[in-house]
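Title: [Solved] Glycosyl hydrolase family 13 catalytic domain-containing protein 3D structure

Original question kept below for reference.
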Amino acid sequence: MSSGAESPKNLYLGITPEFLDEESRSICPLLTPSPTAVHFRHPLSSPGYDQQHSPSSGDTEISSLPAALCTRAEKSPITETGRLITDGLEGSSSSSSCSVMQDSGASAQLLNYFTLSADPSAIEKGGLKSVVNLLGLSKQAQEYSFVSWNWTVIRRWCFWGVMSLAVACICIIIGYISTIPRRCDPSRSWYQGTLIYQIFPPSFQDSDGSGVGDLKGITSRIGYLDRLGVRGVRLSYIFPSRSYPEHFQNPENLTQIDHTIGTFKDFEVMLESLHRSNISVVLDIPLFPFFDRLKMKSDEEEQEVKHVIVNNHILVSTTNKTHGWVSERSEITDVLLFWLNIGVDGFYLEGLEHFLTDELFISQIFEWRAILNKYNQGFEKILICSEEVVKSLTKNMHTIANAESKLNVVMKSFDLINVHLDPFTNGVPSIKEKLHEVQNGVIYSKPGYPWVYWTSGGVDTLRLASKAPYGNVTMALLLTTMALPGTTGIFYGDEIGLLNVDDEQFIDVQHLHQLAPMHWSDSPNSYGFAVRNIIPWMKVTPSRLSLSATQFITQMSIIKDSSPGLYMNAMWKNDRLIPNSEIRYIDENVLLLERNYPRRHTFLLMANIGKEKLMKDFSSHYYGGVLILDTSGGAERYATFQDTQLVPGQAIIAKLDK
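Solution (posted by the thread starter after getting help):
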């Protein structure tokens, strides 16, 4: 820096920096920047910038700007033409702070902060541009369009929009939570682990005073079925015969309804009413009696023409001794299609075990299954057969042609296998034997195979109450059947201990003695079966229990329907079915059945099906639990099993401690 005197060329109108007053110095404190401790490269000090704005470039107008900023003279430093009057400025190390202009970096910094302008507003401010211009805003605030927007309305819309979005999110979350099931129970089909009620229509309820039960009578008792917890009604023998109902086993065709019990219109009304109550309808199809009779005729004749009425059309087919099953196959298929079109939900194929040796057995079963699958439409149509089909194929694996393939098609095509229990004839221990046989047999060999359909009564067996060793043990047996793994079947009247007909006047129809009319009241004449004191077609018999006893069936249905440990037939683990039931104790009178399921309460059934009172300590098996059902009263209480007493016919369902 030069130490000489200030050059007149660098002064503005003769005013030197040494004579700046305090106010003038205070407004430009950046005129004397301190040198940086290290080398600092300012963004504006690029070579191009230095070449354009360096004071050494000969642009005396720009190089003399700091002098103008440092001078606040009374006269304007601007000429009439708007240009600066510069006479040159010589820097000196001992001169004022304005000598910093000798440093090009400092000049660049100053130009970054201050700009001399010739507009009037800048002149009034001593040559400085306004702050707005320094920020790059060339317009006034009122000139922007958003300033004139209705911000009051915008703020309201934004507020309520955010609030609405928050409320919508909360509602979505609440709706999602409300749809989440409270219990994560395993799913099942309508026929699995439920109660199916078998009805012989002529003996259930007479609605027209004919003395014979009918379809309208069934419709009038749907409320009773619903209270029991029934999810399926199995109708047995509704087809016409020469003397119906006395000779119901000999139907003349399988696509008609005997006029004694009603018309197709009555059937459709009954079907619709049952479906509204979430009760399905399964129809018994007597294959063997019907088609065996035709085979007997074909043995006598080389060929015969048979007429079958289906949908009011006569179908003609031929049969002979060699290929009898071919015509029967087509007719059975037509029968199934006929009832499926009406709305039936399943079929019990009675007598199927008589056709195991037929060479078309496999293709016929496949055809029936395919037909039912076409009619599923979100609601499964089912096939049921007797355990005799499975037992015969299993025992005669080497004597029946393609027995293994036939067994395989049965397991994959049928939904329920009927297993019959008869502890009053075979003894209470036979229940354990039958359960062990089922769980270790082919039914439990693979997942997806049919469920067990447990029954203890039926059209062709004696009444339970007539075989029971003691009064009300039928209720204990029914509750035991409902506690077994699988689906339960109850024959009408067994829930009230209905007895067989025992009268010499009816000795000629001894095969019908188990088909006594159902009780609906305490009236001794017909017990509410018939109207206007009409004598029923079959003699009315007393019952061991009253209708009030059916409350235990209702309670058991509710408990089972909500408990996977009771309605599931097994546990599926590692592609294997693991039984979830075990009989812990059994003798000639009493059995203890345990049912369990993962992460659920274990249930215990204690039932006295014999004729002797039991007093025993079961604390070595179980300590205690909550009694949720007790046929002798006293349910909904906690009990221990040190001194357990069970009278004949008593059954207890306990929810054990975890």
